[in-house]
Amino acid sequence: MAEELLEKARDYFEGQIDFEGQRLAENLNVGILVAIGAISFLAGYITQDIALTLWIGLAGTALTFLVVVPPWPFFNRNAVQWLPARSGGAGITVEVDGKKVS
Amino acid sequence: MHSTLVRGQNVFGFFTTVAFSIAAVIAVSVFLFPQNPSAKLQMRNVQVVKGRPHYYSSKREEYAHVKFDLDMDLSSLYNWNTKQVFIWVTAKYPSESPTEPMTEAVIWDAILPSPSEPWHHNQYVHYKPSPSSSSRTLKSKKPSNGTPGILKLKGQRPKYQITDAAGKIAERANCTLELNWNVQPWVGALTWTNRGDYGLWKGLTGGRSKSFDFPGLKSKGEAAGATKEEDLKTMKGAEANRGKPA
To answer: Which residues form a coiled coil (chain B) (predicted)?
Structure first.
């Protein structure tokens, strides 16, 4: 029971996502941060208020963390189809020093 | 990007890149704002008296007390990336040996904040109300709504009396007053007084007084009689905050 719970907690904190999700996360990270950077600079430049640049930039970064870091369901939509496990030992033999190991 | 930790590290890493790039662009953007600073600086009154460096000193030196008029417009130095402008007035006169560089001494200075800077008691003018302003001091601490960088001073007392390295400053010739500044931005490089033109930045026009000579030494009786004692006082800045943390 405890073992099972621990395993679940580990999975939760590790937050693994599938390969397509990893590509998406990378693109979101770069896309959102670059967009926020451009928006914050322009907003500050137009209003002549450098504090606005700072706060938009920080808020946008917080948003990026929120979107990219947790293992959201949309990062796990393309689960990898693994090959079925073969029954143990069938067809494969491993020899070590001429002795059959398995 | 496969796990939470790696994603967190990647987001933070790219955030630092973006933040640095934006800061660099902001630092460069100040060159898009034209500057055309101008100032009129005049010597109003100069007296030389004997004094001592501090109360318990037995050393007697000559001190020059220079009053001046300043009518300046440095408002074009203020843009969205200006934190504050530090200005100071120097008296510049030839050293005793002609082979040595001119002697320069600061007689007055001020911190002129931009309206975006928070209140601080060292500032010469305030654009934000003091966080500790109580009702009884409200009137004196009322924030200014003037244009930053514009100052009109008439008969301004010096903050600092000046003396020469030799301790003798009476009857020295050919002194001029000069206005200097240092722009301190929120992000980017400091810039100092420029008299040449660089792109959209025009150099300072004026900002130098006509040359004058230091008068002879006034004897103590003469100083007390002919001029009021008041005339030899220096002006403390708003930063005269003894006992308070800076």
So the answer is: none
Burial (CB < 10 A; 0-12, 13-18, 19+), residue B78, is: buried
Q: Which of B10, B20, B21, B22 would you mutate first to test chain A, the one with the most A CBs within 10 A?
A: B22
Tell me whether 0.90 is exceeded by the ipTM.
Answer: no
Residues B91 and B55 in one domain: yes
Same domain membership, residue B213 and residue B125: yes
B100 and B131 housed in the same domain = yes
Q: Are B22 and B112 in a shared domain?
A: no
Q: Are residues B162 and B211 in the same domain?
A: yes
Q: What is the dihedral of CA B217, B220, B222, B227, to 10 degrees?
A: 90
pLDDT tens across B17-56, in order? Answer: 999 999 999 999 999 999 999 999 999 999 999 888 888 8
Distance of CA B222 to CAs A50, A84, B48, B161, B229, Å? 56, 110, 11, 19, 11
Question: For B186, which residue in chain A has the nearest alpha carbon?
Answer: A50
Are residues A22 and B15, on separate chains, in Cβ contact within 8 Å?
no
Provide the number of CB pairs (under 8 Å) joining chain A to chain B.
73
Domain check: are B186 and B72 in the same one? yes
